[in-house]
UniProtKB/TrEMBL annotation:
This is Phosphorybosylanthranilate isomerase. GO terms for molecular function: isomerase activity. InterPro entries: BtpA, RibuloseP-bd_barrel. SUPFAM superfamilies: Ribulose-phoshate binding barrel (SSF51366). Pfam families: BtpA. Keywords: Isomerase. Belongs to the BtpA family.
Length: 267
């Protein structure tokens, strides 16, 4: 999978996926009424990530708090599709989509329409208690929709023990969660993150997930910084980076190309 998604990856280094966090879209409390500014900001962040040397981009409606637990309104899908298409046309990098909080079907539709190569699904199998309430897995619908669209080139990266959530009832052994995610949820890759946005992933958990995943790629999805990048790179197959690449290391700020270059140089 990694060779197909990242054909130009330098030998000996895991791929780095840089996050393009969208400013609030229409109908959200934070939206300022300037849709073109949202689009310009996304393109500027994508440009800084590409110039800094990341291997792929991932577009996410990060500013749309509070998030819907499942399907988002049609206008969110439309706006994200337009922005994704602009980013894909402007930069020759693989593009991923994450439609928060857990709208895997819309993420797939956006990726399929815009020429994206992968999506992130926070809860693909099982159920989690989140700040949006109970969120349940969508593998049964998502995989059938991918078949219906013949969108097999869009790969599914799915979180295990996803951030900002806790298990429903007694937690199962992590290895069982990973096995179900891959064998029953048919995830193409597994993501491990910390407890919240920007928080470091537990090294022991990453090792356990990597062992349980076998040949399925494992990505670290939070807490990657220039200081932690080399150590994390030894533990996994890919890195997803957002907060650490922003000005002043703040998730709400624009991407700082100098911070991107610093992280890539650390690898």
């Amino acid at each position: 999978m990694l060779d197909m998604l990242f054909p130009n990856l330098p030998e000996g280094r895991p791929p780095v996926i840089g996050m393009v966090h969208l400013a609030p879209l229409p109908d959200t409390p934070g939206y300022d009424g300037d849709l073109e500014r949202v689009r310009r900001r996304a393109l500027r962040d994508a440009e800084a990530l590409a110039e800094g040397g990341v291997d792929a981009l991932m577009l996410e409606n990060f500013g749309d708090v509070p998030f819907y637990p499942g399907r988002v309104p049609a206008h969110v899908v439309a706006h994200m599709s337009v922005i994704a298409a602009r980013v894909r046309q402007a930069f020759d990098l693989p593009l991923g989509i994450n439609c928060l909080r857990n709208d895997a079907l819309s993420a797939l539709a956006i990726a399929h329409a815009a020429g994206g190569g992968f999506i992130r699904v926070n809860i693909l199998t099982g159920a989690r208690v989140t700040d949006q309430g109970l969120v349940q897995g969508q593998a049964h619908d998502l995989l059938r929709e991918r078949e219906r669209l013949r969108a097999h080139a869009v790969r599914i990266l799915a979180d295990v023990d996803v951030k900002h959530s806790t298990a429903l009832g007694a937690a199962r052994p992590l290895a069982e969660e990973v096995t179900d995610l891959i064998r029953r949820g048919l995830a193409d890759g597994v993501i491990v993150s910390g407890g919240g946005t920007g928080l470091p992933a537990d090294r022991g958990q990453v090792r356990a997930v990597k062992h349980a995943a076998g040949g399925t790629p494992v990505f670290i999805g939070s807490g990657v910084t220039p200081e932690t990048a080399r150590e994390y790179a030894r533990l996994c197959d890919g890195l997803i980076v957002g907060t650490a690449l922003k000005r002043a290391g703040s998730a709400g700020n624009a991407v700082d190309v100098r911070r991107v270059r610093e992280l890539m140089a650390a690898l």
